[in-house]
């Protein structure tokens, strides 16, 4: 069931996910390898760099209604040693360079 949902998510990316993925895919982002819509610890995360244990989540309007779930999910992933970085979709589209710079700085500091 999770695999089916993963496939659906991969086919229906938001505009913000498409934008970010064009920068993260194929080691385009400073040589770091990212995967998208990855199943991890029973969850599907938007983007993950296993080398640096960084998860990037892009949130749309529905996430304002599921704050408690997102917080629990983030805590569980952080207990596994991952750093979870969250951006709103509109934030990615309006502040593209700032978002990319934030991701880069986190990657540099996760040595």
From TrEMBL:
Residues 3-107 form the DUF559 domain. GO terms for molecular function: endonuclease activity. InterPro entries: DUF559, Endonuclease_DUF559_bact, Restrct_endonuc-II-like. Keywords: Endonuclease, Hydrolase, Nuclease. This is Very-short-patch-repair endonuclease. It holds the Pfam family DUF559.
């Amino acid at each position: 069931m999770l695999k089916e949902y993963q496939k659906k998510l991969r086919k229906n990316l938001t505009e913000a996910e498409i934008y970010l993925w064009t920068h993260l895919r194929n080691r385009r982002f400073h040589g770091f390898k990212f995967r998208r819509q990855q199943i991890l610890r029973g969850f599907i995360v938007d983007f993950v760099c296993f080398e640096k244990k960084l998860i990037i989540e892009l949130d749309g309007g529905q996430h304002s209604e599921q704050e408690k779930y997102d917080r629990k999910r983030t805590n569980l992933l952080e207990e596994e040693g991952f750093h979870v970085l969250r951006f709103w979709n509109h934030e990615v589209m309006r502040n593209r360079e700032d978002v990319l710079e934030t991701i880069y700085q986190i990657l540099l500091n996760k040595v």
